[in-house]
Amino acid sequence: MNYDKIKRSGILFLLGIGAITSLSCNDNDNGGYPERVPTRLSVMPLPERVDYKESVVTLPQNVTVSQNIPASTSQLLKSTLEEKLSLSASDASNDHAFIRVKQESDLAKEAYRLTVTKEGACIYYSTETGLLWGIQTLRQALEQANFFTSGNSKYLPMVDIKDAPKYDWRGFHIDVVRHMFTVDYLKKVIDCLSFYKINKLHLHLTDDQGWRIEIKRYPKLTTEGAVGNWHDPKAPATFYTQEEIKEIVAYAADRHIMVVPEFDMPGHATAVCRSYPEISGGGEGKWQHFTFHPCKEETFEFISNVLDEIVALFPSPYIHIGGDEVHYGNQSWFTDPEIQQFIKDKNLGNETGLEQYFIRRAADIVASKGKTMIGWDEMIDAGVSPDKAVIMWWRHDRKHQLVKAL
Question: What's the whole-number average pLDDT of the chain?
């Protein structure tokens, strides 16, 4: 074997690779810009279409922002420019701004188009929600400009992005019952959700471990029901006042996020039932007050009164009530004479029929408040009228799906 020939061939191959690499990194390939310039952007979620041009644009030291952008949305842009890029930002008329906007009625309500040219960036939209999502994509692009610098200059690729969400409901669930978070922390969560175009925040406010929202008509829900958490059942009472809830909802609305409240029933009601034991329906041995009492009119009056205050705080057309995981217990629904007689009188058949009866009553109450009830799979069997509920199936033995019949 001729090793010298192989060695020479290998050297020539490496020299060829080096020459190609050198040429590909030549500054002249980008119109005289330094070699470390952006050619691709990472955008989440992935847009429908991204078309790159063959050049880049230099960000000015003072980036002018269109006065046509709503104040809260404009402030998001300015914070990115000033805090992330150390650039200054100022307002300008739309025609003369580096970041401009243009309304186009033929775009879908959450759709946008973002173009970056040598004149700057322009966002096309039909609604303020679409405008915000375009701004959020631009913010993601701007943050990446930190990786593409030369001296004091920062660059963006010239690009044309077209996007619209695939799903109307893009949700995030947070449990403040077991792990209570401050209002400031929730605002940070909301900022993050909006940055990635998540438009629903499901706020889990009630469960066995605690009741986390002020209800003025029933003060013991917070003085007693808000005591404890997942780690310590004797932890001091923690909850959100109604003014704090209004603050959270308004902050989310500014970022085009709907906050959906959750008020669990008939199960997961320990915190309620230890506060007002007269509406307790018993439960498993270790959860003596696990479930709402399903046979008392006082229970449904309580639910209606609580919902009056919750509805006033949340503009969301939806209320989530859980509707699942009712534990009938060894010494409650199965053996309680009052409950067993109620099942016979109403011809409900058994404890499952009673659960279905409860859910139908709850759906009627929610509908009477002008809201649509969201709940789990048991509602399908409960025969809830489809104009009163959005049914969520969420069981390991069933396909995950959302059935909407409004």
Answer: 84
